[in-house]
Here is the input.
Amino acid sequence: MTADAVSAPAGQADGPAPAAAPPVRGPRARTWAGYLRYGAGKVGGAAVSLFAVLVTSFFLFRLIPGDPVKTMTGGRPVSAEQLAALRREFGLDLPLWQQFTDYCGKALTGDLGTSYQFRAPVTEKIADALPNTLLLTGTAFVLYTALGIVIGTRSAWRQGRLGDRLNTGLALTLYSLPSFWLGLLLIIVFSVGMGPVPGLFPTGGMESGGEQGFAHVLDVAHHLVLPVLTLVAVEYGQTLLVTRSALLDETGSDYLTTARAKGLRDDAVRRRHAVPNALLPTVTLIFVNLGRTVAGVILVETVFSWPGLGGLFYQALSVPDLPLVQGLFLFFASAVIVMNTVADLVYPLLDPRVGR
Amino acid sequence: MTLLDVRNLTVTYPGGAAAVRGVDLRLDAGQKLGIAGESGCGKSTLALALLRLLPAGTKVTGEILLDGEDVLTMRWGRVRAVRWAGASIVFQGAMHSLNPVHRVGDQIAEPILLHRKETPAGARRRTGELLEHVGLPAARVSAYPHELSGGQRQRVMIAMALACDPALIIADEPTTALDVMIQAQILRLIEQLVDEQDVGLMMISHDLSVLADLCDRLAVMYAGRVVEEGPARAVHEDARHPYAAALSAAFPRIGDPASRFAPRGLAGDPPDPAAVPSGCAFHPRCPVAVEGCDTVDIGLREAAPGRLAACVHVPAGNSADARSTP
Here is the structure.
């Protein structure tokens, strides 16, 4: 904290200070030093969290009942020697602590092991499924974030009016729906068709196959509609409610009276003065959500048979395919931690009071 | 020339609290008017009412003639044009009245850009000049409010109030949150700026001695009413209304040993604006209340040439009007 360092020259400059008072360069330079120290602290904290995740991901999934080697052999009759050979191949015969150190050592070099069921490197499986997930969750993320912020600020500004009550009520209702249930409902109504509604959209998957070029893009977009709609409906409420309540905390502030007294229009008071002050909680949420976008959405991807990370995780859990489960878990958690850290690093740029 | 003429102003908040109950005030161009009273007497509400800054749903009646134009009947576009360009406000506690996430230079430049249609470069130049005018280095434009001390923030607030050369500056307890030394500096600064630019000043404070020192005229408010009005020094030294006298005695007079030992202060709390006592609102706390004070509402009477007070003990010879409660 350099708060005292900043205010010390400020205090001296009080009173009819000589025009040549030079405190300008001082605080500025110290502010940057303060920012670097603040940033280093946040990055250090993230590193500790990442290590904790590494440890958790290793031990947590070893608590899942089931013998991976037996699942791999698919119940076929195998001799004890063959099982032992498989165990040796995957290093499962080693003591637990040795498995753990091997795992940590390899993870640090970017090697997350080999999937039991796919017999392919875990990193490769993740890299294959990641673009599909990002297409789905990224699209949804952009839409629900924009929707949540726009409706949230308007709701707060007109607190208690009919529009606010309707919007908040609708958002809460959708927010509390289980995503798989809503997804299934949408499939029944808009894919299968119900009553006068024809089956407009495919029931699942990402593409019909066969199309090329622009037709392929359209086809993927067509497959994207229902899962994105499901995600947006379930997720936008959270952004809306956080934005709304953060802005409500600011509405009574004195500086808004000052802004009005200056003769600013009401919407300028909101956009220029209230929203920037209320944005911090929303920014936190945006970055957490951004981290979650790579984690995919297991339920929605499963319901819509989307070939992404969520579906992969589901497959890996049922074996259990330990290296794949661990790898995915580590990847998901790292994404959230990294995005949180980015959010922490962005705060001071948005709000000068943070971290100095 | 009359700059501000407030006639029979009443303000009632949603929920029924009558914060201002029939106030008449006049302020000439270049004059300094002080408004004194305890917390809750309606003086800050009065300041906000002048620029129609009270929350929606608040009932405001009467007339507020600013340069002859009634603020209360203006269209909103005109109100916004009058705000800051016609009359600006120095708010109390500049920590909260400045936006914490904007640089102070941008906050000062904002009304200049809005009302003066200045170019950004021109506004920047003027902002620097204004800061130097209030005794801060022009380089401070890039500071955030939290990087400044309390006194510096109040200077920024004053620079901001001067930005569009308003004819009237309303200062709402501008020195309340400051220590005594800085308080004196800020008061001198306000006095100097008002004198050299010939703007009208309406200074609101609970500190009668500060107002008596700075202002030409002084109005003392109690429970939403002006109870005494007159030349500042005269009101402070020889108050005719018992409340004004108590308020005056609450601050010891330097160099006057008698005042140090005189009983001072006032028992009880100011009345709840939602349930103002009948008759003279001051009668439950009044040391000289007589029979009838709890039923008859005495209006302002001429207590001496150029002086008004609303008390039954003021001879009713030239009574302005005496209203009685139904």
Summary: The domain at 29-350 of chain A is CATH 1.10.3720.10 (MetI-like fold). Chain A touches chain B through 34 residues (CB under 8 Å). Confidence is low (pLDDT under 50) at residues 1-27 of chain A.
